[in-house]
Amino acid sequence: MKISENTDDRLILDDVPWVRGIVIILVTIFAVGMSFREINSGRETGYFVLFAVLAMGLISFTFFVERYQILFLRPEGIVLKRKRSVFRFRETSQDLDQVSHAKVVETRDSDGGTMYHPVLVLRDGAKPMRPVSYTH
Questions:
Q1: How far apart are CA 98 and CA 122, in angstroms?
Q2: Closest-CA residue to 68 (of 121, 8, 127, 12)
Q3: What Rg value do the Cα atoms of the chain yield, rounded?
Q4: How many C-beta neighbours within 10 Å does residue 73 have?
Q5: Which of 4, 32, 35, 51 has the greatest CB tally within 10 Å of its CB?
């Protein structure tokens, strides 16, 4: 997540998966081109492949490309967590008074790689800022 706005009254953390979205689009365009090649060569299976590729591209883009935003709003006294995908928008709020601090938790995945999870620490426990991990 990167800081997109930092003022005395507002802090906005943003995560926009540009690379993931572009890769899904490019792979889908390539596969559509290959299915058109099949159709032009007279193979009837090209239509099935075209339909399957477009469906998988749309499903992949819908589920894997989501924008996360966390807004710390001092005048309103709240923390907003926003998640936006192609078809839906979700927003949850938390009182800013309940926030103790934020930290990054380091864990290991099954392959032994290091993963980093941003965590918002509340007075009554910790909550993940977002459900996706950073792997380095």
A1: 5
A2: 12
A3: 20
A4: 15
A5: 35
Q: Which residues sit opposite 61 in a β-bridge? A: none
d(C-alpha 43, C-alpha 26), whole Å: 24
User: Would you state the structure tokens that stand for residue 17, as one six-digit string?
Assistant: 């998966």
pLDDT category of residue 96 using cuts at 50, 70 and 90: confident
* Continuous segment of H or E residues that includes residue 108: strand 99-108
Query: Which residues are 68's β-sheet partners?
Result: 15, 83
What DSSP element (H or E) covers 72? strand 67-73
Q: Which of 107, 111, 103, 110 is nearest to 129 (CA)?
A: 103
Q: Are 31 and 51 in contact, with CB atoms under 8 Å apart?
A: no
- Written as six digits, the tokens of 30 are 């390539």
Taking alpha carbons only, the member of 7, 129, 133 closest to residue 68 is 129
Contact 101, 126 (CB under 8 A): no
Structure tokens at 100: 């103790």
